[in-house]
Amino acid sequence: MEDLRLDSLEGVGPVTTRKLSDAGIHNVMDLIVRGPVEIAEITGMEKDTAEKIVNKARQHLVEGGLIAKDFVSASEIYKHRQSIGKITTGTNCLDTLFDGGIETQALTEVYGEFGCGKTQFAHTLSVMVQKPKTEGGLDGGVLYIDTENTFRPERIVSIAQAHEMDPEKVLDRIIVARAYNSAHQTLILEEAGQIIEENNVKLIVADSAVGLFRSEYLGRGTLSVRQQKLNHFVHLLARIAETYNCAAIATNQVMASPDVFFGDPTRPIGGNVVAHTSTYRIYFKKSGKKRIARMVDSPHHPEEEVIFALGEAGVIDPEDAEKKTKKTTKKASIKKTKESVDDTAETLEVDATESTIDIESDDLEPIEE
Ligand SMILES: Nc1ncnc2c1ncn2[C@@H]1O[C@H](COP(=O)(O)OP(=O)(O)OP(=O)(O)O)[C@@H](O)[C@H]1O
Ligand SMILES: [Mg+2]
Fold this sequence. Notes:
The protein is of the alpha/beta class and about 375 residues long. It folds into two domains: about 1-85, DNA polymerase, domain 1 (Orthogonal Bundle); about 85-315, Rossmann fold. It has 14 helices and twelve strands. Strands 3, 4, 5, 6, 7, 8, 9, 10, 11 and 12 form a ten-stranded mixed beta sheet that branches. A two-stranded antiparallel sheet has the order 1-2. The structure holds adenosine-5'-triphosphate and magnesium ion (MG).
């Protein structure tokens, strides 16, 4: 393993090392993730000096084969892409959509309305990433940034059990960071380097990535500040994923846009910021009890759709959901016959999460960047 300590860089002595670590920069990777402008800002050092240090860090990592050179041949990129890890979703349908699974070194945005399964998807991946490589995982840990207090260890336990994994071990490898406001959410990510390394984190979840920014910066006047801060957050997330070779998932809720008359009247509330930074964008949509996942934007996947479902095991294949429904329908019809009610027995389930979609005027405007 390459020496990643700050003082392994030529010309970085104890004084600079201390200055950097006081500012939360603990290793060579952190230097790359934060970049020269930010380093100068948080340490108070000259921008030129910060640039020199970051360049040295980059050179160091290139020599160690940890990141790509500035100029590379396409065949080298191809070879490098072979080292990209994939995390199975635990379903055939979504694995087909993702061509094998969620990729490392990339930011995947999942957007859709409330209750469409974004959080269930994030929980499922938090379990699947821990599977050995031979079974579609990356034998890695998870950093779960929870901004809406919707992380549920109980869900992790049932998903792990459904995949015949030891729930206690699975829970141990998920580090949950509860973010209380958008500044805190960003801080968590800024300080994540050490945690990622120590725990061999291969998946970072930001659920939701935009919710806090949206609730804190209300109204037209604050829109540009909000977009700027959100931009910083998602870029940081994308850079961490690339530098540490882990997968990053950002969830984003959509709301109705009454100004859209054709096509789907929903769009992500993060505006274009998250969309432009993400490598992959997936849209989840409710369709009765089933869910539809569409690959909206990808550099190399066709735009296609698959049907999936939600269950005890997290995201599941629709066939598996049908098996279960058949069982419950059968039970229900027996009960109904006993009570000698009308023999057209049919189970009807009401989605408890059904409610109206709220609309904010500033979200209806196209967002300028
Ligand atoms: N144990 C379970 N078994 C089956 N389905 C479940 C279970 N737990 C949750 N669900 C399903 O997941 C849905 C909620 O999904 P989820 O919380 O992932 O939505 P979301 O997209 O994150 O919504 P929001 O935007 O509000 O955060 C519920 O409506 C329910 O259908
Ligand atoms: Mg959610």
